[in-house]
UniProtKB/TrEMBL annotation:
Residues 11-192 form the Ketoreductase domain. Belongs to the short-chain dehydrogenases/reductases (SDR) family. Gene3D superfamilies: NAD(P)-binding Rossmann-like Domain. This is SDR family NAD(P)-dependent oxidoreductase. It comes from the Bacteria. It holds the Pfam family adh_short.
Length: 253
């Protein structure tokens, strides 16, 4: 299926880092299809570099520094998009708090709340703003990035799993309410390690050693994952996928 792209159409990626990560790969994939892209993330240096790398002209990829768990930041992002005269056709919530293992007995209330705010609360904020912009056109794609913890809570990952499970439930509720109104809401479970900059720098370099130990086919390639997101966006509404799980063929499940 192909899609006709208007100059006003745009994609929004919440949780963009470097080009080598999933957020950067998503921005590059949407840009390649002719969409204007808003690359939103916490690190100005990273997202501005990613924007220049994807679009040296600076005309079609806009870097926006924001905190997804802050209502004012989320509202300001979508207000800016509207002020630019653009319409979000696909919005991806890809932000997440790092899933560091910790015993439940040693997890502080502050840590529990922070993980929930970054993964679940922020997803709700982004979903609300995206839906408000998509409903007048009765079309659009809203995608949430999940994880293995969306489905099962491992020992020492209670905070992360509870937040990701909450995000999955939010996505289901949004799909059931707004799917009949023309909005495609999807939840993608990333069941494995994405071979990007963030994973490589995890634990002072141990992440890179882990990726090497997995081999070329032991982790998810960001561009391959981004292609799956794009195909979700292209799906005809008579055959929408709500939940998609992606993993390397070596990954057990």
């Amino acid at each position: 299926m192909t899609q006709t792209v208007s100059p006003r159409d745009c994609a929004v990626v919440i949780g963009t880092g470097t080009r080598s990560g999933l957020g950067g790969a998503l921005c590059a994939r949407f840009h390649a299809q002719g969409l204007a892209v808003y690359a939103a993330g916490r690190s100005r240096e990273k997202i501005e570099h990613t924007a220049r790398e994807i679009d040296p002209s600076g005309q079609r990829v806009t870097a926006v520094v924001m905190e997804a768990a802050e209502p004012a930041d989320v509202s300001a992002l979508f207000a800016r998009i509207a002020a630019d005269g653009r319409i979000p056709k696909v919005v991806v919530f890809n932000a997440a708090e790092r899933n560091i293992p910790m015993s439940m007995l040693n997890t502080t209330p502050e840590q529990l709340e922070q993980v929930w705010r970054s993964n679940c609360f922020a997803g709700a904020l982004v979903g609300q703003e995206a839906l408000r912009r998509m409903l007048p056109q009765a079309e659009g794609t809203l995608i949430f990035t999940g994880a293995s913890g969306s489905l099962r809570g491992r020992a020492r990952f209670a905070a992360f799993a509870s937040a990701k499970a909450g995000l999955r439930a939010l996505a289901q509720s949004m799909a059931r309410e707004f799917g009949p109104k023309g909005i495609h809401v999807a939840h993608v479970i990333i069941d494995g390690v994405v071979n990007g900059d963030r994973a490589g720098k995890f634990a002072a370099g141990l992440g890179k050693a882990y990726l090497i130990s997995r081999g070329n086919d032991g982790s998810l390639h960001p561009d391959a994952v981004a292609e799956s997101y794009w195909q979700l966006h292209l799906q005809h509404r008579s055959a929408w996928t709500h939940e998609l799980d992606l993993r390397p063929f070596k990954e057990s499940f």
